[in-house]
Protein: HCP-like protein
Organism: Basidiobolus meristosporus CBS 931.73
Amino acid sequence: MKISCKSCTLLLLLIGCTISSHAEDESIETPREVSFEDAKPNISPYDQAMALLKSMPKDRVTFKRSKPITNGLFQSQFQKLTTFLYNRIFHSENGDSLRKAPHPKLQQAAALLEAEAKLGNADAIFTLAELNFFSYYDYPRNLKLAFDYYSQLASEKGNATAQRMVGFMFATGIGNVVERDQGKALLYSTFAASGGDYEAQMMVGFRYLMGIGASNNCEKAVEQYKKVADKAMEYYHSGASNRRVPPSPKIRLPDEHGGIYGYAHNGGSIHRDPSEVEDILQYTRELAERGDIQAQISLAHIYYSGGHHIERNYRKAYRYYYDVANSQVRDASDTETSKLIAQARGMLGEMFRRGEGVTQDDETAYEWYIRGVQLESPIANNGLGDMYLKGVVVAEDAEQAKKYFEVASSMGYPEAHVNLGLLHLKAPQPDYANAYALFLKAYEGHYVPAYYHLAELIRKGHVEQPCSTVVTLYKNFVERMDWLHSPFPDAHRAYKKGDIETAFLRYLMAAEMGYEIG
């Protein structure tokens, strides 16, 4: 059986982490002992099984992690990695030949589920499929059984998730369970996409975009990506203040180990050793504690956004923004300090508006915006404009909102560009040219919602651009605003816990969805 180039790419991405995770210590962690009271007679066997499963740790650990890789990787570890993963996952329907027997409570739950599955319980069938495929709760992975359960659900129940998983297995031939068949992969994925499965819609969109299992068809690709984009935009606007903070940036696995060639051979902050990052953070904290306003704002931004080796922490961000916001400008010529204070006040307005690390409070948000506007904060001007537009705290006033948006836009604030552009579209005589120009500015400022609005303008024929531009904009949007369909959090969590097989499977799914990072 041949592996696609896409699968090879996933193997390469894992070079920086996999071999180190099993080369020195192949001991297995056993699930912790748990207590579970006997279920009451009136509880169904399925509910009994789920109660048993929920009483156990869900994640599994394939191998205990060893020391991180610090030298060149391709030379010494490529052959080991490819041989290990190729044989263990691609050639074997059961990737758990080295694992210990399942925990007794897991065996009990599985027996209950199997009995229910024989009676046609769709939930039991689906749970068994997931257990066998993803090896949840340390259940022995059996891709053949997973395929059988998914196939049963797909054909008998029309389950969209099951249809997508069957399509995925036909696309990759994973586990040597079925022969790779891109036509069947597209067929099952299309059924799943029609059933509203976001991941499947991305898979189908990518297949039509790249001509995998079908001829290239940009219009069909746009159709699928737009469905996902619409849902993502709807979710974005469902947050407090009608907007959510985008998901954290995705982490490339080689960056976990200093890049492709290790810490010693890469420059730049993204490839710093975690201990070095902590040293820098500690030094910056010490400066911040001594009242260094630049250090305080830097820490605030770091904790607000999160990043490589640093988890997002709104409470810590709030603390540092608050310290900066209440600082004093020494004299009128101290414009740099004034700008930093303005930033902090604007960000505090945002945090209170959305309830990030603090109790959501529009009145307090308004007060911080006012204080920020006094120092010409673009964030605060945009925030006040949004409040006037929606009549939050103040009386609704579209003209006043427009004035604030114009001020923020003149300062180059990307979100204000979009807000002003949307006002141009809502005018009695829509101004598509100006809206497009503003959306383009926001796009150039890497404001992700602008991708969607540009795509919509072009798709509706208000701006002349090729279909390829539309699909690229939608694709970039859904790959960044992917709260509802991202495989990356589960993939990265599995990797960090040492479950390299599951990480590989989830990153392979990301590749089938068209993602280009992992």
Summary: Residues 312 and 449 are 21 Å apart (CA to CA). DSSP finds 23 helices and no strands in the chain. Confidence is low (pLDDT under 50) at residues 1-40, 62-79, 263-270.
